[in-house]
Amino acid sequence: MIQLPEKFIHTIVGVHQERGALWLEHFEELIQYCENRWSFQVQAAYPLSFNFVAPVLFHNGTEAVLKLGVPNKEIITEAEALRMYKGNGCARLWDADTDKGILILEKATPGHTLKTIVDDDEAVRLASAVMRKLQVSPPLRPLFPSTADWAKGFDKLRTRYYGSTGPLPERMVRKAEEWFAKLHKTWRNPQLLHGDLHHENLLSAEREPYIAIDPKGLIGELEYGVISFLMNNLPEKHPSDIMRRRIELFSTELTLDPVRIMTWGYCHTVLSAWWCVEDQVGDPLKSLELAAVFEKLLEEKA
To answer: Pfam families, from UniProt (predicted)?
Structure first.
């Protein structure tokens, strides 16, 4: 029997409510179903956040990774994004049953995250190399959400708090809403983005120096695609110095507009604060602190 961590259980219930509780209730049955259908043995799980992820060993000795989540649209878009990337800069999708929330993925070996790279400049360059490989035109059918769809999260915030912004500062939410609107009016070359490309979603592999895992699948500007990386693995003191340098490097490596990166970054971090409140997961204050960093960097550019 697999013992799930209490924090993971809390996250599943916080995000998915009754559907999450029901999924947890039948979790052992789901594991058994997977082992019987694909003839593998589930090994000890990796550290868990929003999904169950564990290495598996097939009866013929082949290794892979099993990812299980409460069935939802993100499972579907992740599977489709993996299919569109075709293993180029990203883990390969071996099989899937999205109705049951099941993905079977290529295992990255040795699988060290980009957090192991001490030189931050080198980490940015390695991430940029992966991002260049992940540049894919949006599909014709409207499967993936766009950054404009994500921005509608503020409508949900104001609905919950009767037009106000609840625990989030009105000034910051209003500015994020206004900037989101301006940015979307001037979209340039939107494409399929990973949507959550940060240090822990970049793993060392044998066939490429690093490959991405866990794509959300998001339509937006490439400038938006670097935001998750900018927010991740920052020092407690003077994060603005690291952030400024990363933006400079990404702008050079990927030919991006630094001001648009900062503006998207401000909007996204305020939105992330709302997601923390909505899902009862994470620290909204930390997201707001990062929004303040982006705001400071923009003031320097003015």
So the answer is: APH_6_hur (PF04655)
The last residue of a domain, from among 105, 137, 157: 105
pLDDT band of residue 181 (cuts 50, 70, 90) is very high
Helix %, strand %, coil % of the chain (to 5): 55, 15, 35
Tokens of 213: 């895992």
In angstroms, the CA 167 to CA 273 distance is: 10
How much is the pLDDT for 286? Answer: 94
> Residues 40-72: pLDDT tens digits?
999 999 999 899 999 999 999 999 999 999 999
* Ramachandran angles phi, psi of 241, nearest 5°: -65, -45
Q: State residue 233's pLDDT score.
A: 95
pLDDT digits (tens, 9 = 90+) for 110-126: 999 999 999 999 999 99
Residue among 107, 37, 14 at smallest CA distance from 66: 107
Question: Which residue shows structure tokens 């001001």?
Answer: 259
Say if residue 212 is in the same domain as residue 188: yes
Return d(Cα 168, Cα 166) in angstroms, integer.
6
pTM of the model: 0.92
Q: Residues 139, 101: one domain?
A: no
Report d(CA 205, CA 36) in Å as an integer. 28
CA–CA distance, 4 with 268 (Å, rounded to integer): 31
The Cα–Cα gap between 214 and 205 comes to 15
Determine the Cα–Cα distance for residues 8 and 300; give it in Å rounded to an integer: 40
Hey, what amino acid is at 21? A
Instruction: Report phi then psi at 60, rounded to 5.
Output: -90, 5
Are 44 and 90 found together in one domain? yes
Residues 149-169 have a mean pLDDT of 96
* C-beta separation of 294 from 265 below 8 A: yes
* Residue numbers of the domain that contains 27: 6-105
Same domain, 207 and 268: yes
